[in-house]
Structure formats: C-alpha cells, structure tokens
C-alpha cells in the first residue's frame, strides 16, 4: 500500500470518528458546534501526556477522550443553565471552541502559534481502523438501546418528551459528552499521526470539514455521516489532477445533492423504501416457490 494512500485512509478514518462525534448532538437537532474545540483538547492533552510525561499511548488517548467529554459536559451544562437553544446555543459552543483556540495560540507551554512539536508517532492505519470499527459497533448498539430510543424521541419532539417521563436534560448531557469524547479521541489519534499540531488546525475550517459531510450524508442515520465523510473525502482525491478546481467540484456536488435531496443521501424515507423493496422481493420469491414457478 502506497504511503500517500495509507495516509489518506488513516486521515479519513480519524475524520469519520470526529464526524460521528459531531453527528450525535445534531441527530437530536442540537447545534453543538464545538467539535473542533473538543478535538483540540484531545490532541493537546494526549500529546502532552505522551511527550512530557511518558504516558502510554492508549492511556493518553483515553485521558484526552475523557477531558474532551468533560469539556463538552461543562459547556452544555452552562448552556442549559441559561436556557440557550438553537442558533444562540450554536454561537455559545462555537465561542468556546474559538476561545480555546485563542488561549492555545497565546500559551507558550504548548508552543503557541509556532505549534506543538516532538509528538511521538503511535497512530497507525490498522489501529485507527480497529478503533473506528469499535465506534461503529457502538453506534449500532446505541441505536438499539434505551438511550438511543430516548435520543430519537428528543429528535422527534423535544417539547412533549418531558411529559412522558423522559429525562430530557440528562439524556442530552450524556449524548453531548459521548460526542465530545469521540471528538477528543479523534484529535488524539490525529496528533499522534501528523506529529505536529497548531491551534489554528482546530478552527472554523475544521468544523466545516466535519459538518458538511454529515449534512451531505443525512442526519437520520449514523451511517449517513460515515458515507458523507468518505464520499466528500474521495471526490477531491479522484480529481486531484484538476488542482484547486477539484474543491469547486466537491462544492458543486454538495450543492446539487442538497437541492435534489435536502435531507441528504440517507433519510428515514430512503431506509423505509429499501425495506419495502426487499420485502416485496421476498414475497415474490415465496409466491414463486409456493406455485412452483421458476
């Protein structure tokens, strides 16, 4: 496997983990857009722990994940206390991420604007692929768990679910914390792959790079986020010979899809139609078997 292709696959796997973390609050129609900040926390925390304290890589990643989850929890608790929602909540979360970036830019302890160097190489394609597979299995289990059902109920009607005894705030905070933790995990894996990080790596452009594929793939199912991340990651690589125009091609493909399918590639309607198609095919096979027709 070529080094460039391996690098592409590794980064795509990391971005998929980050996208799934960002997908969680969005799947409840909650605009928590602090994912870049959570990635920065995971990246810097794990890098400091491995470089300066000699902590084992898995423990450093776990610590960065927990730190990012705790940050997401604090941000969302503060937002809940002042009853922020919708656009105002998005601005609040974005302000957190941007404030963190500014603090890191002015902190000599982590290299400031010059960046954090000396990070040890630990992230491999095999390791990231295994982590991504575990995360996907976790999402599959979440969709079938009580927490997953509560998340769906909040997405469908956040105003009526408290009347049904659903712990609205607690459910939101757990989902936010898991999403932030996944962002921190992705940040730690990224830092130990590129070996050099700057605060500006975790700015608004990273948020757009994570959010756009999720909207492209669709918010109704977690595999929409996975599909969108990989499609929008592959398109620029397929047309690399076009130079900067390949980015215009990606933007055009995104705009065209959103015009034709505002809900993204995968929606609840898409899933139901696919299930209906498979059911009709199975019924046709059974009828053919019962009547002896070929």
From TrEMBL:
UniProt keyword annotation of RNA-binding present: no
InterPro entries: ABC_transp_permease, LivM-like
Transmembrane segments: 6-24, 31-49, 55-79, 86-104, 124-142, 173-196, 202-235, 247-266
The keyword Membrane belongs to this UniProt entry's keyword annotation: yes
Protein location: Cell membrane
Superkingdom field: Bacteria
Keywords on record: Cell membrane, Membrane, Transmembrane, Transmembrane helix
Topology term for the membrane: Multi-pass membrane protein
The name this protein goes by in its record: Branched-chain amino acid ABC transporter permease
Organism taxonomic ancestry: Bacteria, Pseudomonadati, Pseudomonadota, Alphaproteobacteria, Rhodobacterales
């Amino acid at each position: 496997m070529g080094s460039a292709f391996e690098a592409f696959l590794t980064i795509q796997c990391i971005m998929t983990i980050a996208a799934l973390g960002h997908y969680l609050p969005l799947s409840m129609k909650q605009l928590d857009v602090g994912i870049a900040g959570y990635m920065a926390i995971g990246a810097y925390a794990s890098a400091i722990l491995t470089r300066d304290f000699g902590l084992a890589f898995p423990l450093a990643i776990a610590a960065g994940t927990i730190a990012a989850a705790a940050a997401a929890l604090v941000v969302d608790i503060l937002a809940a206390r002042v009853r922020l929602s919708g656009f105002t909540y998005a601005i609040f979360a974005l302000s957190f991420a941007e404030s963190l970036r500014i603090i890191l830019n002015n902190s000599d302890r982590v290299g400031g604007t010059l960046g954090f160097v000396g990070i040890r190489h630990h992230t491999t394609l095999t390791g990231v692929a295994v982590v991504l597979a575990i995360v996907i299995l976790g999402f599959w289990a979440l969709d079938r768990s009580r927490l997953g059902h509560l998340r769906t109920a909040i997405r469908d009607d956040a105003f009526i679910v408290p009347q049904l005894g659903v712990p609205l705030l607690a459910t939101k905070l757990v989902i936010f914390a898991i999403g932030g933790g996944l962002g921190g995990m992705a940040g730690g894996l990224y830092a130990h792959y590129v070996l050099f990080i700057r605060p500006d790596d975790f700015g608004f452009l990273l948020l757009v790079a994570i959010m756009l594929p999720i909207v492209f793939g669709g918010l109704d199912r977690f595999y929409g986020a996975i599909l969108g991340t990989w499609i929008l990651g592959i398109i620029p690589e397929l047309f690399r010979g076009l130079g900067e125009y390949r980015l215009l091609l990606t933007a055009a493909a995104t705009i065209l899809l959103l015009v034709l399918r505002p809900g993204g590639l995968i929606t609840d309607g898409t899933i139901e139609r696919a299930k209906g198609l498979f059911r009709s095919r199975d019924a046709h096979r059974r009828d053919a078997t019962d009547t002896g027709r070929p």
